[in-house]
Amino acid sequence: MSVRIGKVEWKGLMPPLFLAPMEDVTDAAFRRLCREMGADAVVTEFISSEGLIRQAEKSWQKARIWEEERPVGIQIFGGEIEPMREAARLIEKVQPDWLDINYGCPVSKVVCRGAGAGILRDIDRMEYLTREIVNATSLPVTVKTRLGWDASSIRIVEVAHRLQAVGIVALAVHARTRADGYAGEARWEWIGRLKSDPDLHIPIIGNGDIDSPQKAYHLYHTYKPDALMIGRAAIGYPWIFREIKHYFLTGELLPPPSLEERLQMIEKHLSYALRILPEPPQKIVVELRKHYSGYFRGLPHGKKLRLSLMEARTPDELRRALDAIARSTPHAEAVKV
Fold it and tell me: Does residue 333 sit within a domain?
């Protein structure tokens, strides 16, 4: 199979695996870890178009990418035409492999501004805004969105046709509505409907509920997306990409990472973050906490191990806590859950 976004092409026996954009999660350090563990492509946290055109330092820090993480897309969001158009132009100087538009974030503070999933209430505006962005930049443009605003207004097939017509090169679909948030089971049958439509030729990237190799295999072979996008299951568990690939190729499950591997991964995560992120070391240590549940997933006494790291306030304190875990549980192994 072959999937292309702009100049990037993936060929192989299985679909490419994308790391989903997640606010305060998919920073450059974590994106690099996921690429090393088998992600075929990554996307940045969403970046405010207003912040970019106002030269806000935080926005431009989020837009910084590294060669080690390519292929990489930069995702922007906003509800106003001119800032989005100008942000698309400005992002060209960073030279990502593609530009992604966020039409899926369900968070109220984003939605109330007509951005993210807020635009799902106005498909005409979505089409117009997308056309303006495509025309404003030389970068390939992709879109990530949801099925619709709620169950009574699912228009994803129409949306796909209209966005394809204005020039996007791929569409990522989280198979829930904005009203669903992250609750309930993702409705992948809509991914299947998109893929069975003979007039849709852009790649369709399926997202939602991919939390195991078996689930990835089932969803791919049932609904036939061109690529799979993994979000929450990757938080603190970058091994998910390696495990999915192994299962697709062999039909076998890899053993879960050992405690030693997990401690080494946390140390590597910390090291990358200190080296390439602009935040103060203390903030980096605090931000790592959101990953600990994933890092200790499936381990006996995982909650106790996680809590022992939560007390660390500095990199040195965190490293000492990791060393203490290694010394106190030298033979602990992961268990399947």
Answer: no
Q: Which two tokens stand for residue 152?
A: 């009574």
Q: What is the pLDDT of residues 245-257, one digit of tens each?
A: 999 999 999 999 9
> d(Cα 164, Cα 127) in Å, to the nearest integer?
10
Q: How many CB atoms lie within 10 A of CB 301?
A: 13
Q: Which residues of the chain have pLDDT under 50?
A: 332-337
H helix and E strand count, the chain: 15, 11
Give the distance from CA 40 to its chain's centroid.
12
Q: 30 in the Ramachandran plot: left (φ > 0), alpha (ψ -120 to 50) or beta?
A: alpha
Q: Residue 336's pLDDT is what? A: 42
The pLDDT value given to residue 330: 56
Residue 111: the pLDDT is 87
Whole-number pLDDT of residue 113: 81
Domain count, the chain: 2
Q: Are residues 143 and 292 in the same domain?
A: no
Question: What is the per-residue burial (b if ≥16 Cβ within 10 Å, else e) of 196-234?
Answer: eeeebebbbbbbbbbebbeebbebbeebebbbbbbbbbb
Whether residue 264 sits in one domain with residue 232: no
Q: What pLDDT, in 10s, does the model give residues 255-293?
A: 999 999 999 999 999 999 999 999 999 999 999 999 999
Among residues 43, 72, 105, 141, the one annotated as catalytic is 105
In this prediction the pTM is 0.94
Spatial separation of the C-alpha atoms in residues 62 and 45, rounded to whole Å:
7
Nearest of 306, 237, 322 to residue 271 by alpha carbon: 322
User: What integer pLDDT is reported at residue 115 of this predicted model?
Assistant: 86
Angle between helices 213-223 and 239-250 (to 10 degrees): 60
- Does residue 337 belong to any structural domain of this protein? no
Write the CB contacts of 323 (distance below 8 Å, at least 6 apart in sequence).
none
Region of 90 on the Ramachandran plot (φ > 0 left; ψ -120 to 50 alpha; else beta): alpha
105 included as an active-site residue: yes
